[in-house]
Structures are given as structure tokens and as C-alpha cells.
Amino acid sequence: MARKKQNLKTDIILKNYWRDNERFADLFNAVLFGGEQVIQPDELEDLDAESSTILEHRKHAEGIAASRDNIKVRKKSAAYGIELVMLGNESQEHIDYAMPMRVMGYDYSAYKKQYDSNAVKYKNADGMEEDEYLSRMKRTDRFLPTELSVENN
Fold this sequence. Notes:
By secondary structure, the chain is of the alpha+beta class. The protein is built from four helices and six strands.
């Protein structure tokens, strides 16, 4: 009997493997906290791994699209509010020596997405200081911290 050829890509297998919150929490707890169970699986929520943004400088504009393997937000209640952090995981078959550059691009895209969605609220200068209006951001606005990334080979 002929055996069926499997068409499985390592990248897809690993994305599905790390999608599990228990595995994902275990990885970050091992790497960041020496195995101490700081991140709990029930504190994690999946985020959209696809991001795109437009870089604009003077008369030049360029669209950039990126896709993380796995990205989750950790939401934890604290005595003084909510602690939020985005955690990203990139699985590589081979070592990627340029990974820090890729991660910086992902981080920029995530911050730019937050900035763009926030800035639309400030169409006029009502109730804003001049610097706030020019920045399209109030002094009290905050970004969700973006990513603690782990690469696993």
C-alpha cells in the first residue's frame, strides 16, 4: 500500500503548536523567569498577527506588511489597575541573525497602529495644548507596551 505524502510545513506546525496558551506561557516563563510561573495561561489572549502600516516621509510613502508567528496580550489585574504586555513568538528553522531588525519592524508597526487609531480622535485643537495638537497625542495618552519576543529554533 502506497503511503500518502504529507504536505506539512514546519512553520505552520509550529504556529499551531505555540497557539496553545499553556505552551506559550511555559515558554515565556522558562525563558524570562527561570521557570517561575509568572505568566498564567488564562491571562493570555490572541492578537491579530497581521500588521500593516504606511511609512511616509516628505513626498515618499511606502506600504509595509508583516506577520508574526504568534502574538498574545497578557492581561492581568493588579491592585492599581491593569497590567498589559504583548508577547511575540517567532519560530525559525534556521538561526536568523537579522531577527532583531525584523522584531524592530514588528514593534514599529504595532506602535504606529496604536498611534494612528488614537490620533483620529484629535481632528481639532479643542481642549489641547499646541504640542499635543501638533503631535496628535495628548500628554496623558499611553501606548500598550509592545513585545517581549522569543525566537526558538
